Amino acid sequence: MPSPKLYDLNHSAIWAKLHQHQRATRHLHMRELFEADPARFDKFSLRLGPLLLDYAKHRVTERTLALLFELAETAQLSHWRDQLRRGAPINLSEGRAVLHMALRGTASDDYCVAGQSVMPAVLAVRARMADFAQRVRSGVWKGFDGQAIKTVVNIGIGGSDLGALLACQALVPFADSGLTVRFVSNLDGQHLAQTLADLNPATTLFIVASKSFTTPETLLNAEAARDWLLRTAPASAVAQHFVAVSSQTERVCAFGIDPVNMFEFWDWVGGRYSVWSAVGLPLMLAIGEAGFDQFLAGARAMDTHFFTAPFAQNAPVIMALLGVWYNTFYGAHSHAVIPYDQGLARFPAYLQQLDMESNGKRVGRQGETLDFDTGPIIWGEVGVNSQHAFFQLLHQGTRLIPCDFVVPMHTHYPVGQQHAALVANCFAQSEALMRGKTDAELLVELADLPDDTRDMLLPQKRFLGNQPSSTLAFEAITPYSLGMLMALYEHKVFVQGVIWGINSFDQWGVEYGKQLARRIEPELHHPLPLTHDASTNGLIAHYRAQHSPH
Q1: Residue 506's CB: how many other CB atoms inside 10 A?
Q2: I need a surface site. Which of 40, 157, 443, 500 has the fewest CB within 10 A?
Q3: 388 tagged catalytic
Q4: Are the CB atoms for 333 and 377 separated by under 8 Å?
Q5: Taking a C-beta distance cutoff of 8 angstroms, is the pair 51, 481 a contact?
């Protein structure tokens, strides 16, 4: 891969300009910006198919955005975007391409790795998924006693769980009512036990999702599920009730799964970017091939937009640069995501892995230590519930916390005035965070109170406002719009990684804890010498004492 000219971005002229601009504008209130420019919404919003991105409620001017776009150019975003699209090995520490966009591609796309088109393999697996899903959904696929499958249980963790779980929950209105899809990820046995408690082994199908087929949490849960099945079924039933999403045929066969029922994906697909692959099999089972194709089509539309739109009209680029503006130049180390749709309740959790596992790095691509802040803490909860939980901190706390509000304009459920009230709450919260409430406004509001009461209440009811937010307003949550939304955030994360000069596609920090767990587990059960720190040794000894037969 041709390398761009190396540069020290945080010591560049544009970096210094942005710091200077932040100091010069930090006292500006968004109220003033709106009052000065009645056309601000038109200038700072973007429509893309069923999506409206409103980014007018941010502490930015046209000059701020111009400087941020200059930062993107200096960081050679166009080059890195091109390398991503070409299938170059931009995952430098593992020498891998990053080509999850190909998973939602069509036969006419030219996605290649090492000069070879990946589309024939992608389309072949997708066709096998569709055939399998049709057989299960139609009842042709039978369990060990001849009954049709009624429940699908996906066993995976991280990227083999979060994306598919989010999509299945969000798209319940599009699902086949005759088939239930559930998910198990937690190693805590309660998760599996509670999931299986009311299920019939004869009508339950398990999907074991693990690229390496060595993920400890997934395999332990899969083995426990197999034991549950075999309490009432013959050993041969495993092949009828288990399928795999993996790249390791031998390990899948050793488990008892027929390799014909293994759906592969590839090392150029990172786990947190894999819902578009066979990892999305639970979603295809839930909403069918046509629905899944629409899910891919929405993501593909966002890919086209990202790869072709100028930065100033590019939704992922704009969202990414706004995040860099606050995280790196304002020191706002937290970012809240508030979906005003119950089906998107797991969206913050999905984004936590996508964003923090990608950009939670302190070293650059070449291993250099960075002396500025990178990935923010991502958190959130479904609205309106969150308004009665942590919005107090957003409105009157001491921290600057940018927010993303995600809200559909239409609902699939006959809920009367509830949806209008929901949307009104979403719009009101973004306005309140921006406007705040001044002392002059409060004095009018408290005018009828005694002087002492007014003096006491005034500081308590003061809202400084000027808290930034974006609103992502969709026509409705559909397979297509959900695909757009998830791909939008994928590309946003990529852009921020480019700006910060980090590799967004490895996750060595995840691996270290796993290595230590493999060392500690046998020490819990056997009197092996303990050579950890005093705290860890003490905790292991405490566990041994609790499980001692004496």
Answers
A1: 18
A2: 443
A3: yes
A4: yes
A5: yes
Q: Give pLDDT < 70 ranges for the chain.
A: 1-7, 550
Contact 280, 289 (CB under 8 A): no
- Tokens for 446? 């408290």
Task: Quote the pLDDT of residue 3.
Answer: 41
Helices and strands counted in the chain (H then E): 22, 13
Measured between alpha carbons, how far is residue 135 from residues 138, 209, 289, 534 in Å?
A: 5, 20, 11, 56
Q: Could you please report the per-residue DSSP string of 337-350?
A: EEESSGGGTTHHHH
**Tokens of residue 145, six digits:** 């006693």
Residue from 514, 521, 525, 542 carrying the catalytic annotation? 514
- Amino acid at position 520, single letter: I
The set of residues, in sequence order, having a beta carbon less than 8 Å from that of 253 and lying 6+ positions away, is: 259
Nearest CA among 396, 383, 384, 393 for reference residue 436: 396
Q: State which H helix or E strand residue 392 sits in.
A: helix 391-396
Q: What is residue 186's predicted lDDT score, i.e. its pLDDT?
A: 96
- Taking alpha carbons only, the member of 256, 144, 244 closest to residue 200 is 144
Question: In terms of C-beta density within 10 A (0-12 exposed, 13-18 middle, 19 or more buried), how is residue 61 classed?
Answer: middle
- The pLDDT of residue 28: 95
Q: Please give the full DSSP string across 34-65, using - where no structure is assigned.
A: HHH-TTHHHHTEEEETTEEEE--SSS--HHHH
Residue 354 in contact with residue 490, Cβ under 8 Å? yes
* pLDDT tens-digit readout, 383-442: 999 999 999 999 999 999 999 999 999 999 887 789 999 999 999 999 999 999 999 999
Q: Give the model confidence (pLDDT) of 101-142 as tens digits.
A: 999 999 999 999 999 999 999 999 999 999 999 999 999 999
On whether the CB atoms of residues 396 and 463 are closer than 8 A, the answer is yes
Residue 114: partners with Cβ closer than 8 Å, 6 or more residues away: 87, 97
Sheet containing strand 180-184, edge to edge, reads: 180-184, 151-155, 204-209, 242-245, 262-263
Alpha helices in 238-364 (DSSP H): 238-241, 249-255, 281-308, 315-324, 347-351, 358-359
Task: Output the six-digit token pair for 423.
Answer: 């949307």
The active-site residue, picked from 357, 381, 490, 523, is: 357
